[in-house]
Amino acid sequence: MGLDIRLPIGSFFALIGVILAAYGMLSDPSIYQRSLGINVNAVWGLLLVVFGVLMFLFGRRATSRKNPHE
Amino acid sequence: MFHIEVHTIDYVILAIYFAFVLGVGWALRRHVNTSSEFFLSGRSIPAWITGLAFISANLGAQEVIGMGASGAKYGIATSHFYWLGAIPAMVFVGVFMMPFYYGSRARSVPEYLKLRFDEKTRGLNAIFFAIMTVFSSGISLYAMGLLLQTLLGWNFTFSIMVSAAIVLTYTLLGGLTSAIYNEVLQFFLIIAGFLPLVALGLKDVGGWTGLKHKLELVSVAHGFAPGAYSHSWSYLGSPAANPMGVEWFSMVMGLGFVLSFGYWCTDFLVVQRAMASESMSAAQRTPLIAALPKMFFPALVILPGMIAIALSQNAGHTGFALPPKPDGTLNYDLAIPMMLGHYLPSGILGLGLAALMASFMSGMAGNVTAFNTVWTYDIYQAYIRKGESDGHYLRMGRMATLFGILLSVAAAYAATRFNNIMDMLQLVFAFVNAPLFATFLLGMFWKRTTGHGAFSGLLVGTIAAAIHHGLTLPAGAVAGIKGGWLATLHTYPSEMAQNFWTAIYAWTACFLCTLLVSLVTRPRPDSELTGLVYSLTPRPRDESARWFERPVVLAAVVLGLVVVLNIVFW
Prior knowledge:
heterodimer, A: mainly alpha, B: mainly alpha, Sodium/glucose cotransporter, 2 domains, two-stranded parallel ribbon, 2 strands, 71% helix, 1% strand
């Protein structure tokens, strides 16, 4: 259908993951009191980056297989 | 009043989400040239995508907020809506019904009824369905506007206008494909947003063991045996033994059979996703693939509610508790939204809020795309303007999308002023939906079923539902919208028990009436029913070579897993 959905989903989560991870490393640690002392932004951000990149790569592989000349 | 503080970073994340959703619609705009591409994605989408969209379209406000609330109110027995209700029905529609929906090339569920029965049965179903989708999406918008106003202090009009405008834009641009693609994005987003919440809540409550222990205190405080909130089947022997007030028979027949099969097997909102898939085998796999993640969704939507009630009864380290309503009872509806605000620091809070809005928007887009298709194909093309060009119907579909959304917004505003009318409408929808599955079951599996039988069965079933509701009342309720508006012949232990029995009576009445009327009316010749009825349709052959992609294999895996889940949490 012209667009492999894994490309936008992958980019979305990679981007959100990078923002969260960066914010997690720069933000004031006291805000993590409510999350039981865990820096959820950093942890979850990094996991989302991994997920996003994998999704994107799967999408790329499928797209290039379909249109080998592009 | 509890208030969630939202920072710039959270707004950035929300804005990125909105940008992606609109971007997907924009990227697909050139691929919509025919009405089939707009309404059915040109039947070209792979099964894993339609499968995930199948779950997301149903994962609206009612599901996320309602299941969280039920988890808090009834404990783990709420999982029956999944492990007894949704999953078996999804397996059934995939294995047994999809061959007729997809194979008949019908473009909608009402159109299948036209092919199988006659014009009047289609008309009845199409008109009710169109009205129902518009109001459901309006009620969902209203719930969202109210929630965002309460929690974030956002302006009601602003929230619903922004969400309606975004859904409108991406559905107009890319049609059903755009709705489906965004539903897949929303599916992952809902997991990404809610999973950290559940993990933190579970840690706060002391893990599964801590949760079970605290739920025992909740059970005892409500006057039940200690395990009543943490076992799904053990306390279904009598309605007095569990917080739902329901016994196993009405649970299995009412929820598990009539209501769940009625929704998952006949509602065009979900069936449309499968109809958009690229092949018969993909259409059959759509609900089966959907069932795999679906059966673990109780962990995302019911578990937070259970954690919320456990912590309200017996505080954890962070002092989380549900707020009381003005009448003193706990406000169960706020279980999930309150936990978002309580456990998630800014940053990931934006992700959680995006997930919440995604669930509202995917539910709304699901309703709107189902509405525009039924309106254009089953009402406009059938009764208003026959025989126009395809481009004409494509334009009408786009207009119907706009009108559908405008009507939803109007319904959302109506709900702010006339709450009783909305309750009454939902009641009427329940009466209309309850008998539906009897009609489809007989229609697909008994070739003798006639159009007159189906039509009269649907009417009689709906009337039976209304009469049963009018004659019974849940314990402690006043006669009126809750029932008993004719006379009170029987009192049920709970509203849920009354709902389940209403469904059972409606289904039985429809089944018997369809059967009897069919026997005395003239059936259609066999030659006209090929592809529409089980006994006259060649079994679909699996064109997919790989064994694990065969619908029957997938179905067995899904059923096996769901049996295990039922036993583990028995």
